[in-house]
């Protein structure tokens, strides 16, 4: 989903704010934003079609608060869950709500 589409969505009088998922992968320094649309996650892209990456949650806050989005779900994904009881080792995912 392009940023302009997200802006249009939040300004439209549809009665709902989209759910935003901010994903952090273990070992990476960037956050990736996904927007839930029709029960699927769409990566947030700039107008050139490039996936937007964020260096901090403050950058996310500066982008989303003016659009009326007050919280995101921070999803932390660790592909190496050494404490998993399942074999082979599976990835671990944790979600938490972050107020902006």
In total, how many beta strands? 6
The amount of beta strand, in percent, is 35-45%
In angstroms, what separates the terminal alpha carbons? 21 Å
Query: Quick one: overall form?
Result: globular
Order of helices and strands: HEEEEHEE
Describe this structure in words.
By secondary structure, the chain is an alpha+beta fold. 17% of the residues lie in helices and 35% in strands. It is built from 2 helices and 6 strands, in the order H-E-E-E-E-H-E-E. The chain has helices spanning 3-11, 57-64, and strands at residues 20-25, 31-37, 40-43, 53-54, 71-78, 92-99. Strands 1, 2, 3, 4, 5 and 6 form a 6-stranded mixed β-sheet that branches. Strand 1 (20-25) and strand 2 (31-37) form a beta hairpin.
What is the fold's blueprint, element by element?
Layout: H1 3-11, E1 20-25, E2 31-37, E3 40-43, E4 53-54, H2 57-64, E5 71-78, E6 92-99
In short:
This protein has 100 residues and is an alpha+beta fold. The protein has helices spanning 3-11, 57-64, and strands at residues 20-25, 31-37, 40-43, 53-54, 71-78, 92-99.
Key attributes of the depicted protein:
alpha+beta; six-stranded mixed sheet; 100 residues
């Amino acid at each position: 989903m392009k940023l302009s589409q997200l802006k249009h969505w939040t300004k439209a009088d549809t009665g709902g704010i989209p759910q935003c998922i901010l994903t952090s992968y273990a070992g990476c320094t960037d956050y990736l934003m996904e927007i839930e649309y029709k029960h699927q996650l769409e990566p947030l892209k700039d107008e050139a079609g490039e996936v937007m990456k964020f260096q901090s949650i403050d950058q996310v806050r500066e982008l989303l608060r003016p659009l009326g989005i007050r919280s995101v779900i921070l999803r932390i994904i660790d592909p190496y869950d050494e404490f998993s009881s399942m074999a082979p080792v599976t990835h671990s995912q944790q979600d938490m709500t972050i107020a902006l």
